[in-house]
Structures are given as structure tokens and as C-alpha cells.
Amino acid sequence: MEPIIKNPINFTASAINEIKRLMTEPTFDHTQLLRVGVKGGGCSGMTYVLEFDQRKDNDAIYEIDDVRFIIDNAHSMYLFGMEVDWQGGLNSRGFTFNNPNASSTCGCGTSFAV
Known about the structure:
Elements: E1 10-11, H1 13-22, E2 33-40, E3 46-53, E4 59-64, E5 67-72, H2 76-79, E6 83-88, E7 93-98, E8 104-105, E9 111-113
Parallel strand pairs: 1-6, 2-5
Antiparallel strand pairs: 2-3, 3-9, 4-5, 6-7, 8-9
């Protein structure tokens, strides 16, 4: 296995807690890692990806607070410096992304442009 290198992104404590909670679900596949990435689409041009997935050849592996995650090397430039947060309130529930590389962000916060 490759060495773990400096994290290009950060997770808040609430995001780490929610990810760890998801990993304790009975249906969780322990062969998968958390994937953080981007894909084309959304109202602003690119959409964030946050899902559990198998590691691929072009992925770098990272770890924060005992949570291992992967990022496709080609996506790092879009994500460098980003913070992932978890909001658990009644009005706002889900993961949010604070990306200093985004030149604009849609109203829902899951789509951005660079």
C-alpha cells in the first residue's frame, strides 16, 4: 500500500462524526473507502462527489482522524483547500462544501464553477 500523504482537504469534526456513523451501518461494505471528487454537471458546471467506492489506479489515499479517503489525482486541483462539513439541523441537513477554488457556487452548494 502507498504511503499516506498530506491531506489536500479538511473535514470538520461533525463531518468526521457523520462519516464514522455511516461506516457503522450494517450494510456498510468495509472494502470501500470514502471517495471525494468532482464530476461534470450541476447548475454551475461541476458537482461534488462524496461516496463510498473501491480504490482505482489513479487514486491517492489520505487519512483524517482514522477515516481513510481517496481522491482521483486529476481532481485534486479542484479540491485543494476545501472543507467538508456536516449540518444536522432541521433547516439544513447534509454535507456542505466550502471550496476556495470555486469562482461561483449554486444555491444548494453542491455545484460549482472554477
